[in-house]
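Weekly puzzle thread! Below is a chain. First person to post its structure in token form gets bragging rights.
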Amino acid sequence: MFIVEWCESILQLGAVQMAISFTKSVVSNLTKEIAEIQSKSNHEKKRTEKALAKINQLQNDVKLSTSAYDLSNKMSRINKLKEDIKQSKSSQAELSKQLAIKTSTLNKQLPKE
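Winning reply:
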């Protein structure tokens, strides 16, 4: 009888180790995905900041523009940068949603204290 109980406990231990290994793998993957999303989000924020700085520079240059052609080019560039900012902010919003989902999933995988 002792051998049967011992074998059952070994099998249970093996199942627990497999579950722990699986959970570690899931946590590792989620951690990598979260880091990647955060990196993309930071990239989009920097992209937005650069575009805003360029818009400010172009707006100052517009005041100094003497030709209609030069003024038109600068205004076109400002409009394109504003569209880039819209796209970047949209990407940031989507990345924030993804980050919230991944973080929530990760927190569910971590052991409760």
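Puzzle host: Confirmed. Bonus trivia for everyone else. The chain has a mean pLDDT of 86.
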